[in-house]
């Protein structure tokens, strides 16, 4: 058993929010911190993998929200470290909608279907607004008005990409619901296409406060493969237990596990979290977003920036609908990416990659004819079944007040919560996670300072008594020591920070 000494703060999770939280603490003089990460790497939902000779992003792929009045902090960091990115122009996708016989829909039909989908989305939003919050919370479904394959395809993109999915705003330039990211930071999106991966930004951030060498983090304040299974918390501190039997003590904990993980039983809280907290966690939806990568011996799809995104219209909503070729990002890579969400993601995660390849090839042969070559490799990320993620990102119900997110991020005793799901304006995004980490650490620093001030005034009040205790009888001195034991948190005794003479403890 690893019974490490007590840390000032333990941060659980080394995704963007955990790393940004740790950096703020370190920048403010809290060097006595420990980061416990369940997996064998940092990055969390920012994750690259080598595929077909290039680096592909299984998780976050875009820096969304660029070119506006305010600057997206993640874009700033990416620019500072020279991350290679490509502008994504979705505006042409509506002219690249294929039917099942491989014909591209005439633009007039596409425009008409687009208008219908937008009108229906606006109507749905109005219906939601006029329904009671309880009806919505109870899952009252609204009628799906899209009917034809093209309408279904556009409806899918509008909802699963723009509103629920949040990304790819510029595909339809939706007037349906303003998304804070685009309002605040601008409507442009850039795909990360860098061999070092999106995660390179996290290493660069970590370099500032952790010991690193040749791109590796050597600092023993970062512990990988430490799956936190229990958090025992009291007024005095938090005991953190990991699945491998280690026990760590801290004055405070910052927990950055995703909302999907919080909804699962991976971490046991002793005492259990209060009802207001668990209710809020349950109310937040978890989206699943899956990018499936396919490698081909040669290109058979039309290339060019205006053909980067294309759509497959099928009578089943969300069935291999949204496609992207990677020639703009990595010329000559011969890779296609298809995005599935939610129900389709879960279905595909549960089946073998061979079955998924067969389905994807069926769709591609519908669009490009029977003679195209079969993909030589396929990569299917499984975010839903990953017990350290349990989904791709949070999504608050459209009609929900800020109370849910406020409750999700509110601390419980000495446990502080962070992560993209705690960001009021930018949940679901990398910059949401980054800014949430900063906010949480600032709130914790406030708390630590408040604690210090209180303890200083307590020790100031106790000083005359302590001075007196030297001349007291045994019974009197017991009474003084009893008084101190009640009022001063145990960890301050243990760490000796009050400088109370041992004799009276
Ligand atoms: C497929 C996909 C596509 C996306 N696309 C985009 C995009 O294009 N643009 C964008 O801005 N955002 C995108 N996102 C969202 C973005 O990736 C996340 O919002 C962000 O990375 C979340 O960071 P985080 O620190 O909150 O959480 P995480 O990255 O999940 O970090 C939490 C960490 O906690 C660890 N952990 C969990 N449980 C435990 C435990 N019990 N003990 C110890 N450690 C634990 C996890 O292993 C993880 O490393 C996408 C996400 C996915 C999955």
Automatic annotation (TrEMBL):
GO terms for molecular function: flavin adenine dinucleotide binding; polyamine oxidase activity. InterPro entries: Amino_oxidase, FAD/NAD-bd_sf, Flavin_amine_oxidase, Flavin_monoamine_oxidase. Keywords: FAD, Flavoprotein, Oxidoreductase. Pfam families: Amino_oxidase. Gene3D superfamilies: 3.90.660.10, FAD/NAD(P)-binding domain (3.50.50.60). FAD binds at residues 17, 37-38, 228. Pathway: Amine and polyamine degradation; spermine degradation. The keyword Flavoprotein applies. Residues 16-444 form the Amine oxidase domain. Its cofactor is FAD. The keyword Iron-sulfur does not apply. One of its GO terms (biological process) is polyamine catabolic process. Belongs to the flavin monoamine oxidase family. This is Amine oxidase domain-containing protein. It comes from Gossypium lobatum.
